[in-house]
Amino acid sequence: MEDIWIEKYRPKNLDEVVGQDEIVERLKAYVKAKNVPHLLFAGPAGTGKTTCALALCRELFGENWKQNFNELNASDERGIGIIRGKIKDFARTAPIGKADFKIIFLDEADSLTADAQAALRRTIEKYSHICRFILSVNYSSKIIEPIQSRCTVFRFSPIRDEDIKKYIQRIASAEKIEITPDGFEALVFISKGDLRKAINVLQVGASLNKKITAEVLYETSATAKPEDVKALINTALSGNFMAARNQLYDLLIKYGLSGEDIVKQIHQTIFDLTIPDESKIKLIERTGETEFRLIEGSNPHIQLEALLAYFTYEGGKLH
Q1: What single-letter DSSP state applies at residue 64?
Q2: Is the CB of residue 20 less than 8 Å from the CB of residue 49?
Q3: N or C: which end of the chain has fewer CB within 10 A?
Q4: Could you tell me what percent of the chain has a pLDDT over 90?
């Protein structure tokens, strides 16, 4: 069976990590000092949090890194039981080999309940002499203040477009696939700074065709083309509501998008429209309201039609 590319091409050391140069330099300083404080990695998905944690442990512990490293996903078990069980059991045992401490990597730690975080705070305090914690979160504000104050915070930013292109080109060369210029632009647009998503979308596309074009990527990633979404909005703004409604259903059927996916792409596209800023503000406000209603469980077809109807109404004021 073919390897999953995200694991096959995951950086093995800190020098291979892309797009987070400042963070990598700080982590290298810890490796050089052979000492690490408790760390809090915060940032969007696919920006290198897990990769940096794994690379840091490999460089710190060498061959024994797996024995002195424990990775847990807090979203699997969110309650106090995981803290009192797995985490406490691993934290209280002595490190293996010549290591001075072990590392527990807690992924998606922001999904832990308040009680679990309170228990984790005490565990961090009690076993700091033989165990360090790395917490990975999307939103650091969801971690209680006592834990935040015990950790050094690293804020990961979305990967830059040029770094995504370089990394993708490296994989394409190794796998002997060709990516067209519009294919690169499509990957950047679809991933939005998430390198993991870019790699996964590329692998799905490569399973269908060794020549990767924008057309292939949009169809396999359930993402509508930006120009199709822009045409949809412009049709509504021109006052032709029924034509816009037909375009909307074409998008939903062709790309298999959910209501939330469409709303997010409409939001992105509004900024590129050649209309006054005052109109953009009104459209964005209504788009945000529609997204909230969808999240709360409203019927996506009715809400999207209502959004297009508002766009048509606002477009009438512009002409």
Answers
A1: G
A2: no
A3: N
A4: 54
Longest Cα–Cα distance of the chain, Å, equals 75
Q: Strand, coil or helix: what is 230?
A: helix
- What does the alpha-carbon distance between residue 4 and residue 200 come to, in Å, rounded to a whole number? 8
Give the global pTM.
0.84
The pLDDT > 70 percentage for the chain reads: 97
Tokens of 275: 């209309």
Checking if the pLDDT of 75 tops 70, the result is no
DSSP string, 36-50: ---EEEE--TTSSHH
Query: CA 169 → CA 86, 176, 183, 229, distances in Å?
Result: 40, 10, 11, 28
Q: How far is CA 112 from CA 61, 70, 225, in A?
A: 28, 17, 37
Q: Where are the beta strands (DSSP E) in 51-197?
A: 69-73, 102-107, 131-137, 152-155, 178-179
**Residue written as tokens 């700091």?**
128
Inter-residue contact 92 to 27 (CB < 8 Å):
no
| The token pair that represents 123 in the structure block | 């565990």
In sequence order, the 6+-apart residues with CB closer than 8 A to the CB of 249 are none
Task: Write the pLDDT tens digit of every residue in 216-275.
Answer: 888 888 888 889 999 999 999 999 999 999 999 988 887 778 889 899 999 999 998 889
Three-class secondary structure of residue 132 per DSSP: strand
In order of start, what are the domains of the chain with their CATH numbers?
5-155 (3.40.50.300), 161-220 (1.10.8.60), 226-318 (1.20.272.10)
Residue 64, phi then psi, degrees to nearest 5: -90, 15
